[in-house]
Design a protein that fits this description.
heterodimer; A: 359 residues; alpha/beta; Rossmann fold; B: 310 residues; ABC transporter involved in vitamin B12 uptake, BtuC; 13 helices; 0% strand
């Protein structure tokens, strides 16, 4: 066999292969943590599995775990696009610029970026209104704390996380005026060692409620070891740690969105959109409130959840002041999503929270 | 800012737990270096110990078996290093670095199905009356058993190196392998045993991380602890008691930075996060400024290959 025949047959095989693949819609997922983190990435992977279940043979999914936020993410996305992905979900805030960069290079590939705010013709953004769940957490936390100190493990000082802190704080304060928040920034989404250390420190400094905006179950384990401390599952139910320390949770449900967007690509009806759904639309859910919470608190928490879901109550309803005392929302005014002082760009603490937002 | 919310008692208690993994790894590496071998694979052996111990503890439900398997895993990996450097006379620095990279990769592979799993709780010392003594109780008598094992190991190594014949032979091999060989000591055998001891200690340190300090398994969870252990050995000028000091100093800074943050001290978090590493660098600079003094303490044959034919 001479070189020409080898090349020719290789080319033939390749055309045949691409032909076979073209019938399937290929969907890629870029994950910031491992699929077994039991939190954020785990739920995204559940969404991926739901896509496979919904479309069966017509879809092929690929995913890469533990992708750092930065240049490496760009490499992974480019690789997926080159492998023929039609739709790529990039599931962490820090993938925002890499997603936009890669999307400009591959105008025919559709991208979906979670929790970001930069859109393009082939880049949609989607997120859940986690702050609604935080309101319920704050409500329970404010009632349950005996030391009046609530610990909060922040990941990165970005609007999504700051919204969560503010929402939890004002709802804890509403039921317990003496409540104080201690905030530790871990500067990571997923690092059980740091998260465990942060939780331990907060507990040592008197916190008997630990809220986390990081993805692992390590803070739950630390709280369990400490004894009389309650926690909330983050992004996923983390039910293995119930009924104590985990008394409830925020559960993300990406499956319906992933299925709908994959369908749109299949039908050719995909357009760039911005989706920000809350408890009402089913993208965020409140995990079962455990038996460790007294019945009356459970009932009021569920009432709060329902009022958020049906839209009769907005988690940020005035009068609310910024940390420096200036007015943010007048009485009965609710926060707008975008624009000046909007939720999307929230970068300030509300009145009563101590400490500064790190730069 | 509210510094009064930091309780010194709890701070000391938690720094002891935080320092245990690096203390174990460092005391092992001290013995290795005392025998004249520089094994830069501590990080790799630690993380293999972390996953081996975690997997065994989850599989059997017994943290003790977990720790044993961690020691075995670390020792097994160090055996590769021993084979390459002692028989094939490969470069110790390069081999050690390769061992770290290999360990990190292998552990990630081994740990695939262990992410997010809860390990069985390990035994805490809980003496009925003594653990309840104010201040002393929480600081000294209520830790996980591994904390005491690490302390006992430091004392044992000190005693072994200073007062036993075996310790003298080990030091002789580390100071001048040719002289030790001429006296009839088995240089390679002594070094292999030292390397395996170092591997076992690093493995225990890894397990202390994955079974006690966190406790969970995650890829790359040692996050540089092995390198810090190496730095501590130099910082301690190869003296066991100073290894203890160095490990607690480092553990203390790591815990303190989180405490300051929670207490609302308005120092940018980045400075606090890098402070442990900054201190390591400063200490190394100070050490090397007194070059002669440091050189006096370093084992003379450190990092040099030995072959009996010469």
């Amino acid at each position: 066999m001479n070189m020409k025949t080898i090349l020719a047959s290789a080319a033939l095989v390749m055309t045949a292969a691409t032909g076979a693949l073209a019938e399937k819609t290929k969907v890629g997922f870029v994950y910031v943590g491992p699929v077994g983190d039991g939190g954020w990435t785990y739920e995204h992977d559940q969404g991926r599995k739901a896509v496979v279940e919904a479309f069966g043979d017509k879809v092929e999914t690929i995913y890469v775990e533990n992708v750092p936020e930065g240049p490496d993410a760009e490499r992974v996305m480019t690789d997926m696009a080159l492998k023929g992905a039609d739709l790529i979900f990039t599931t962490s805030f820090g993938y925002m610029d890499p997603t936009i960069n890669v999307a400009t290079k591959f105008p025919n590939v559709k991208f979906e970026h979670a929790t970001g705010y930069k859109q393009a013709d082939n880049v949609s953004v989607y997120s859940a209104r986690f702050y609604e769940g935080r309101a319920v957490q704050g409500h329970i936390a404010g009632h349950m704390t005996k030391s009046n100190i609530i610990g909060y493990i922040g990941s990165f000082p970005i609007p999504e996380v700051i919204r969560g802190i503010n929402s939890a704080y004002i709802h804890a304060k509403a039921v317990n005026p003496d409540v104080q928040f201690k905030i530790v920034w871990a500067y990571t989404w997923f690092d059980p060692t740091k998260e465990a250390d942060a939780a331990k420190v907060l507990i040592e400094q008197g916190a008997d409620v630990v809220l986390q905006h990081t993805d692992s179950t390590a803070p739950q384990a630390a709280a369990q070891a400490a004894g009389n401390v309650i926690t909330f599952g983050q992004a996923s139910d983390m039910a293995a740690y119930g009924p104590m320390p985990r008394v409830s949770s925020i559960i993300d449900d990406w499956a319906p969105y992933y299925i709908a967007r994959t369908k749109a690509v299949m039908d050719g009806t995909w357009t760039s959109t911005s989706t920000w759904d809350g408890i009402g639309a089913g993208m965020g859910g409140i995990g079962k409130i455990s038996s460790a919470v007294p019945a009356d608190i459970k009932a009021s928490a569920e009432a709060l959840r329902d009022s958020l879901a049906n839209g009769s109550y907005h988690a940020f309803t005035g009068p609310l002041n910024k940390q420096d005392g200036s007015t943010w929302l007048a009485a009965d005014e609710t926060a707008s999503d975008y624009g000046d002082g909007g939720l999307a760009g929230m970068n300030f603490y509300l009145e009563g929270i101590e400490g500064d937002v790190p730069n | 800012m509210d510094l009064s919310s930091i309780s010194p008692t709890l701070l000391v208690a938690s720094l002891m737990v935080a320092a245990t993994p690096i203390l174990l790894a460092a005391i092992g590496e001290l013995v290795v270096e005392k025998s004249g071998v520089l094994n830069l694979g501590v990080e790799g052996m630690m993380i293999i110990g972390a996953i081996a111990g975690f997997a065994a503890a989850v599989g059997t439900g017994s943290p003790i078996i977990g720790f044993l398997c961690a020691a075995l895993g670390g020792a097994a990996l160090s055996l590769i290093f021993a084979l390459l450097t002692q028989f094939f006379l490969s470069n110790q620095v390069a081999t050690g670095l390769a061992l770290t990279l290999f360990g990190l990769g292998l552990s990630a592979l081994m740990g695939q199905s262990y992410i997010g799993i809860k390990p069985p709780a390990s035994t805490k010392l809980d003496l009925p009356v003594i653990s309840d003594i104010p201040i002393l109780g929480p600081v000294l008598f209520s830790h996980d058993v591994s904390v005491y094992v690490a302390l006992a190991l430091v004392a044992e190594v000190w005693w072994f190196l200073k007062y036993t014949r075996g310790g003298l032979i080990l030091r002789a091999v580390g100071e001048s392998h040719d002289a030790a060989h001429a006296l009839g000591y088995k240089v390679v055998k002594v070094r292999i045993m030292a390397i395996m001891f170092g591997g076992a200690c690093a493995g225990l340190g890894g397990a202390a991380l994955s079974l006690v300090r966190v406790p969970q398994w995650t890829e790359g969870m040692t996050a540089g602890a092995g390198w810090i252990a190496l730095a501590i050995v130099v910082f301690a000028s190869w003296k066991p008691a100073r290894v203890l000091l160095g490990a607690y100093l480092f553990g203390g800074v790591a815990v303190l930075q989180l405490n300051l943050q929670a207490a609302g001290v308005s120092i940018p978090v980045e400075y606090l996060s890098m402070s442990p590493y900054l201190i390591t660098i400063i200490v190394l600079v100070v050490m090397s400024a007194h070059r002669n003094k440091a050189a006096l303490n370093a084992p003379a044959a450190l990092g040099r290959a030995f072959h009996a034919s010469r």
